[in-house]
Amino acid sequence: MICQEIFASLSLSGPGVGSARIDEQWLQGRSVFGGLQALLGVRAMRSLLGDPLPLRTLQTTFIAPLPSGLVRVEARQLRSGKSTVHAEARLYDGEQLVCLIVAVFGAARPSSIAIEPPPVVAAKTPEQSAELPFVAGITPPFLRMFRMRWADGAFPFCGGSRASTQIWAELRDAPVIDESAVIALADSIPSPALSLFRRPSPASSLTWTLEFLRAHVDVPAAPWLIDATVTSAGDGYGAQTATLFDHQGRAVALSRQSVVIFG
Fold first, then answer.
1. pLDDT at 4
2. Do domains 1-107 and 119-263 have the same CATH topology?
3. In whole numbers, what is the pLDDT of the chain averaged over residues?
4. Which of 70, 80, 5 lies closest to 45, judged by CA?
C-alpha cells in the first residue's frame, strides 16, 4: 500500500475530520505532492462512507501551496443517491484552504453499453527504457518514491521536439497497485511540456480530474505505462491528458490537468 506512514499519521477526531503530518520528502517544489493531497482527501471521505463503493471520479483544485508539516483535513458527504455518493474534502494549512477535492463513488448498475478503451502500444519495454535519475535541487524530492522510465519522448528540460511522453511508472514501496497507488501514479509524472525546455523551469497543476475506467484495482505491483500529451498551451497555461495502462495493457484511468507553465 502507498504512503502507509502518512495514512498512519492521519488522526481522525471524528468522521471525515482529522490531521496528518507530512515530511519534506513529499515536497514538489513549494508544495506537497498533489497526488498525496488527493489521497488524504479520499481517505477522509472514505471514513464517511458506510459501503466501500468504487471511486469513479476525482476532481481536485490546488488553491495554494501546501508546505510540509501539519495539514488539517475536513470531509463531508454532499449527496447520497441510489447508486452514487458525492463527497468533498478540504485541506487546510492553518486557516488557509489549500486544496479542494470532490469525489463521486458509484456502485455498478445494469447497462447495455460496454466500450473497452483501445490497448496501448508502448514504444519500448520497461527494460529498454531510460530511467530518470534523481538530481538534488532539480528533481522534486517526492520523485524518490517512484521509479520512472521513458519509453517515448524526452526527459524534462532536454529540449524535446514534442510535448508528449510515454513513461513506465511504479511506486518503489508498493507491493500491490490499488486505488491509492493509481491516484499517486496518475499525478506523478512531469508535465510533457517540460520536455520542450532546455533548462529547468517550474510547472504547477491548477486543477486535476481523474476518471477511473475500471471499478476495482488490486493487482500485483508492476510498471504501469502512462501515455501523456499536452493538447494545448499558451499564455503560461497548458492542458494535458494522460491515460494509465496496467501491467496487462488495459486502460484503467484517464487523467486531465490544467497546468501553469513558468518560462
1. 63
2. no
3. 92
4. 80
What residues does 47 pair with on adjacent strands?
Answer: none
* Phi-psi label, residue 103: left if phi above 0, alpha if psi -120 to 50, beta otherwise: beta
* 146, three cell numbers: 517512484
Domain with residues 1-107, CATH architecture: Roll (3.10)
pTM of the model: 0.93
- Give residue limits of the domains in the chain: 1-107, 119-263
Q: CB neighbours of 95 closer than 8 A, spacing ≥ 6?
A: none
CA 170 to each of CA 114, 149, 192, 246: distance values in angstroms, whole numbers, following the listed order: 29, 9, 18, 11
> Cell match 495493457: residue?
249
**Residue 109 above 60 pLDDT?**
yes
Per-residue pLDDT for 1 more than 50?
Answer: no
Pick the CATH number of 119-263 from 3.40.50.1360, 2.40.160.210, 3.40.50.880, 3.30.1330.10: 2.40.160.210
